[in-house]
Design goal:
The chain is an alpha/beta fold and about 400 residues long. About 35% of the residues lie in helices and about 25% in strands. The longest helix has 23 residues.
């Protein structure tokens, strides 16, 4: 099981809060990007197949950005042709395209025709005033129209991204957005609290009176407000920031949280590849469109490689795996990693269980976060860092 991520950096405009690697479309570079990313796909699939000792089968493909719909469907047809020449796409593979409501150079029908079966729409809010606060380039009506257009294109698996905890948003306006979302024919909702990163305009703006951040208590309350309301509408929280109708959890993102092998191509993309000895390798491509890759010369890629020790790999499996609300099956994890989880974390688990931050079911042997204390998850998960490993032997 392998996942593939393709990063498309182009955006018509850049949102004030965005920390992803993006490049304004008007600055060009699309032609170089197309040839470079096709070459990188070929190189990465070939290299990883050699490491695996067999041709790869991709269970999910995710095209993110940036704004992937700034490139035409014909480009993605070339991507899929290149992938099929060097790997197998599983018959039931989840193939996701990120889209912005106002930034599509092709029709939804065209993107569906080349193979996309899941759409992730960046909407953030259904309040026009709030969309301006977030410097989004679309209106609430354009978002509604985009959902309808993809449904007409016979893409029935649609996810929307929302944001909460940003300046001028109120619990009432958040509720109105949630109610609009619940009325849509969608299957998945991702909702994220605003993160203010130093290298973004928001880092400066939120220090002014014009962009006041809500108090932390309100932001926490808005998370539970969304969780409670969307649960009543048939969605289930399956990860700390994601809810889905039954059977529509994002398989691609679950591959990340379960630390399954994934390949990242494109500027700013990352990949994770577990090793047979219990270690892992993280690759991070340069966040620079014009130097990240030279077509035909893979050795000239600007890629940072980090070698994770067994300790770090185990910690990643725990910290990311516990983000899933189903939790971790401790015996299976111990067999996979060769580490006695209960003994390794004997110093930290008793207090986390006693304080009900974590729940351990002795019948099923599942360890999971307490859904009522999700807002404390970062503090809880940090407890799993730095404990000496105890082998199963």
């Amino acid at each position: 099981m392998t996942a593939l991520y393709i990063h498309v950096p182009f955006c018509h405009s850049v949102c004030n809060y965005c920390d992803f690697y993006v490049s304004r479309s008007k600055h060009g570079g699309q032609e170089q990007y197309v040839e470079s990313v096709l070459s990188e796909i070929e190189h990465e699939l070939h290299t990883k197949a050699q490491l695996a000792g067999a041709a790869l089968t991709l269970t999910s493909i995710y095209v993110g950005g940036g704004t992937p719909t700034q490139l035409p469907a014909s480009f993605y047809q070339r991507c899929f042709d290149t992938i099929r020449a060097h790997a197998t796409i599983a018959p039931n593979a989840e193939i996701t395209l990120e889209a912005n409501p106002n930034a599509m150079v092709d029709t939804p029908d065209a993107y569906a025709a080349v193979g996309f079966n899941r759409i992730s729409l960046g909407i953030q809010s259904f309040n026009d005033r709030e969309l301006k606060v977030l410097s989004r380039g679309h209106s609430a009506q354009q978002a509604l129209d985009a959902v309808a257009a993809f449904r007409v294109a016979v893409i029935s698996n649609i996810s929307v991204d929302l944001m909460y905890g940003f300046p001028h948003q109120t619990p009432d306006s958040w509720q109105a957005t949630l109610e609009q979302v619940a009325a849509l024919p969608i299957q998945h909702v991702s909702f994220y609290g605003l993160q203010v990163h130093e290298d973004t305009p928001y880092h400066r703006l939120v220090k002014t009176d014009a962009y006041p951040l809500p108090p932390d208590e309100q932001t926490v309350s808005m998370f539970y407000q969304a969780k409670s309301y969307l649960e009543m509408q048939g969605f289930t929280l399956y990860e700390l920031s994601n809810m889905a109708r039954e059977g529509f959890e994002s398989r691609h993102n679950k591959a990340y949280w379960q630390m399954q092998p994934f390949i990242g191509v494109g500027p700013g993309a990352s990949g994770y590849w577990p090793q047979p000895d219990g270690t892992a390798v993280l690759s991070e491509n340069a966040r620079d469109l014009h130097t990240w890759y030279v077509p035909g010369e893979p050795d000239k890629r600007r890629t940072l490689i980090t070698y994770y020790t067994q300790q770090e790999h185990v910690e990643n499996k725990l910290v990311f795996g516990l983000r899933l609300l189903t939790g971790l099956h401790v015996p299976s994890l111990e067999r996979e990693l060769g580490v006695n989880i209960l003994k390794t974390y004997a110093k930290v688990l008793p207090s986390l269980l006693e304080e009900k931050h974590l729940i351990f079911d002795t019948d099923t042997q599942m360890l999971r976060l307490n859904p009522e204390k999700i807002h404390l998850s970062n503090t809880v998960l940090a407890e799993f860092i730095g404990e000496p490993l105890v082998s199963c032997n």
